[in-house]
Automatic annotation (TrEMBL):
GO terms for molecular function: deoxyribodipyrimidine photo-lyase activity; DNA binding; FAD binding. PANTHER family: CRYPTOCHROME, CRYPTOCHROME CIRCADIAN CLOCK 5 ISOFORM X1. Keywords: Chromophore, FAD, Flavoprotein. The record marks 301, 354, 377 as: Electron transfer via tryptophanyl radical. FAD binds at residues 223, 267, 367-369. InterPro entries: Crypto/Photolyase_FAD-like_sf (IPR036134), Crypto/Photolyase_N_sf (IPR036155), Cryptochr/Photolyase_FAD-bd (IPR005101), Cryptochrome/DNA_photolyase_1 (IPR002081), DNA_photolyase_1_CS_C (IPR018394), DNA_photolyase_N (IPR006050), Rossmann-like_a/b/a_fold (IPR014729). GO terms for biological process: photoreactive repair; response to light stimulus. Transmembrane segments: none annotated. Its EC number is 4.1.99.3. Binds 1 FAD per subunit. It catalyses: cyclobutadipyrimidine (in DNA) = 2 pyrimidine residues (in DNA). This is Deoxyribodipyrimidine photo-lyase.
């Protein structure tokens, strides 16, 4: 009898323990992907992620086809889809790699119990993380709440297990009927907002591995310093590939250590933050919705729809924030430092709840990831575990001058400021009138005047924090 390999965010052949175990079992394989929006509820994939998913599935289907296996696509509640497919194929078991989103963990443990109760084999594996969350505990036996000791404990394990090689051969079962990928309408039609995404990215395992190899062969050595400079290619841009599982974190670890040894550790430490966010999410399933720091449940947020739209559209009048938000809209990605500054601007300068930013990112990021996104927002808002203290308010002007000193990042994404001298590019409202005129900038007309004053906004944010601080 065949076995089903249920692909999820592990859209690769390399270091895929579920596929590997199914191949080793000797049974013919049915490969399945389920688009299960019902179970995901509020956290169903956003628009940019859907664009990515379409291309990633096409790439996986082609790679599987080369090994003679068809990828079966079905839509609906996974438990019903799986039940029907098992009946159709008379499968004897199901293999999958684990997900760590709370909704998926709930769903999968039910499916596991029900399927086993029918006498079928169910095997699940860790393919998404370096270390299984249940296995890492502090000396008191609790989940780590602070990153540094967490990371020390990760390193003390001696590193994750070595990655598995991709299967050379697969035995295919007769392919069940599949839905057509195009019928899922994962791509935008009118308007087609994906032009910038297409220019910036190539989804799929092959492209993921090339990006990793390119990064490991050079940039990783300068990462420690270069990672903060927003206009430079100092970061790996592996995040969407990692989110969709086109490359495994164990493969990343092995290649970086192989190419750079300990020089690669500052980079692997960031992969550690991904790990930390996932472990936190498993321990705190409400993390995407509720502040981990209970004091923030009564925080005096403001309701300001006009300011929210200005932020979303990159029209706040702060060049760095606007460049960041426009990079996001155009390419589905935002540099990490820009994420911190733009997110901080929303929650501190505008006092708009972090959830509003979290859901905008969720819809527009190609790397939208429940653990990293909610972890990142709670970190910036100062309400998470091991978060930035609330009173530390990022200054978008100084951040720009420090980490985009020539203004190249702003020029790339905010063309109406492209001709402004570097000296003024992060503070156009202070530029002399003739400088603005020469650069073709009229504040309030060609480019917005700041929607809030930094010093006033900072004072307002600190006063709001004072209200909850002692509670
Ligand atoms: P690199 O610097 O090359 O890092 C390598 C990998 O490590 C990344 O691909 C990512 O998987 C992981 N990583 C790096 N930094 C972090 C971090 N701070 N937290 C968690 N993982 C990290 N990351 C996402 O993958 N999805 C999100 O939805 C997301 N939302 C965020 C929201 C906010 C408000 C903030 C401040 C950060 C968010 N991040 C998110 C984390 C981080 O900004 C991105 O992972 C990173 O910018 C991706 O670019 P890169 O692959 O070039 O990173």
């Amino acid at each position: 009898a065949p076995v089903v390999v249920w692909f999820r965010n592990d859209l690769r052949l390399d270091d895929n323990p579920a596929l590997d175990a199914a191949a080793r079992s000797g049974a013919p394989i049915v490969a399945l992907y389920v688009l299960d929006d019902d179970s995901a509820g509020d956290w169903r994939m956003g628009a940019a992620s859907r664009w990515w998913l379409h291309h990633s599935l096409a790439s996986l289907a082609a790679d599987l086809a080369r090994l003679g296996v068809a990828l079966t696509l079905r839509r609906g509640r996974a438990e019903f889809v799986l039940e029907a497919l098992i009946a159709e194929t008379r499968a004897s078991g199901v293999y999958w790699n684990r997900l760590y989103e709370p909704w998926a963990m709930r769903r999968d443990s039910e499916i596991k119990a029900n399927t086993r109760a029918k006498g079928l084999a169910v095997e699940s594996f860790n393919a998404a993380l370096l270390f299984e969350p249940a296995h890492l505990r502090n000396k008191q036996g609790d989940v780590f709440k602070v990153f540094s000791p967490f990371w020390r404990a990760c390193l003390a394990t001696g590193g994750p297990p070595a990655p598995l090689s991709p299967p050379k051969k697969l035995k295919a079962a007769p392919a069940p009927q599949s839905e057509a990928l195009d019928d899922w309408r994962l791509l935008p039609t009118k308007p087609d907002w994906a032009t910038g995404l297409r220019a910036a990215w190539t989804p799929g395992e092959k492209a993921a591995r090339k990006r990793l190899a390119d990064f490991a062969s050079g940039p990783v050595r300068d990462y420690k310093v270069a990672r903060d400079f927003m206009a430079e290619a100092g970061v790996s841009r592996l995040s969407p590939h990692l989110h969709f599982g086109e490359v495994s974190p164990r493969r990343v670890w092995a290649e970086i250590m192989g190419a750079a040894g300990d020089v690669g550790l500052p980079f692997l430490r960031e992969l550690g933050w991904r790990e930390f966010c996932h472990h936190l999410l498993v321990a705190n399933p409400h993390m995407p919705e509720r502040a981990l720091d209970g004091r923030f449940s009564d925080f005096p947020w403001r309701d300001d729809p006009a300011a929210l739209v200005a932020w979303q559209k990159g029209r706040t009048g702060y060049p760095l924030v606007d460049a960041a938000m426009r990079e996001l809209w155009r390419t589905g990605y935002m540099h990490n430092r820009a994420r911190m500054v733009a997110a901080s601007f929303l929650v501190k300068h505008l006092l708009i709840p972090w959830h509003a930013g979290e859901s905008w990112f969720w819809d527009t990021l190609v790397d939208a990831d429940l653990a990293n996104n909610s972890g990142g927002w709670q970190w910036v808002a100062g309400c998470g575990a091991d978060a930035a203290p609330y009173f530390r308010v990022f200054n978008p002007v100084l951040q720009g001058e420090k980490f985009d000193p020539e203004g190249a990042y702003v020029r790339r994404h905010v063309p109406e400021l492209a001709r402004l001298e570097a000296r003024w590019i992060h503070r156009p409202w202070e530029a002399p009138a003739d400088v603005l005129r020469k650069a073709g900038v009229t504040l309030g007309k060609t480019y917005p005047a700041p929607i809030v004053d930094h010093a006033e906004a900072r004072a307002r944010a600190l006063a709001a924090f004072d209200e909850v601080k002692g509670t």
